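Hi Y.,

Following your request, here is the sequence exactly as I used it, all 69 residues.
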Amino acid sequence: MSDKLFSTRDEPLASEDLDVCRRVHEALCSGLKIDRSGKEADRLGALIIELYRQGVHDESQLRLLAGGM
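Below is the corresponding structure, written out as tokens. Let me know if you'd prefer a different format.
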């Protein structure tokens, strides 16, 4: 049995991690003209965080994978 109950994907993000995700989210919402208070922005945010948790930490790569920009 594994000593680790949670995968690294289940660990909370640090404030620096959230800053990266926030910058990418703001840039994509602005560039794609997405209302940041809408459901589309929520889905985009979830996608960015999922990609970040999977190991994509470079902001330009996150923008490209999440929004094609």
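The first helix runs from residue 15 to 32.

Thanks again,
Q.
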